[in-house]
Specification:
This protein is α/β, with parallel strands linked by helices and 326 residues long. Helices cover 34% and strands 18% of the residues.
Amino acid sequence: MFPRAIARHLASGRMRMSFATLPNTVANVTSVQCKDSVGHFLDRYDTFMFDCDGVLWKNDHITPIPGIEHAIQKLQALNKRVLYVTNNSIVSREALQRKFRAHGFESPLENIFGNGYSAAIFLKDILKVSGKVYLVGGAGMKWELDQVGLESVGIGSDCDNPTSDVDELLKYTLTDNIEAVLVGFDEHFSFNKIYKAATYICNPKCHFVATNNIEKGTFIGEADDRRRMPLTGTMVNAIAETANRKPVVVGKPKRIMLDCILRKHDVDVSRTVFIGDSLKADVGFAKRVGIDSALVLTGVSGINDIEDAPELTPNYVLNCLADIVT
């Protein structure tokens, strides 16, 4: 079994695992010197794919992680391709680009892949959607659809008064020529949106696409006042259950996210590593698409989680992305 004592030492700060390689058996952890392992790591890969929340900043989306800008700048100075691949459907690529700048590093727009952007590529280039999209999502997702020339409706609070009266529900006006329903995170999610989205996708010719469905809820607030916030998976599942139809999911850990990246970049997957904080989303994605992975311990998953899910053992574990700066 993977030793829980190591996790306790890491959490307490008594032991710093700057960089470690995990054997396939997960029987033990081989701790190596940071300088040697970083040099090998950087030489091994040409393309570095990063998750954002929990890797580049804390999962509260606000708190910086010291030294991240120096890590990104080092990779850029070595002429490595740096791509950002996130399941956060709230923000657009443009907003992420501004956030990167505020955190001390730069990225061209074409190197940023939110699942809202990937969904837009998937709808436009792969499914060849030309009609309207009913969007259960926010301004960031609408911006991405706008960039590829897809018209969308549904953003914001629904215009009809909610009701459980069947006669009134039948009077709701539905938009013509809805060719796809796209569901991501929507702070205006409601009964009406479930009703309309499910109604549209009852037409088998209407595509049903979701940004992701594995992140269903998270704690927010202080330890003495913790509250539970619903996430995208909850919204996707509510519509899917109502319509009795499963969506095509474009976000991690699904393969479609990589397909969208490969439409824009010539990537050698054998020389690519994905660095993330979630075993399920990030390491799971890497394993599904056949690339190496590194887990950073600044976000969702920790050492104990690897013990509990050995099938999601990453190739590397870093205490923090900043550890690649020596």
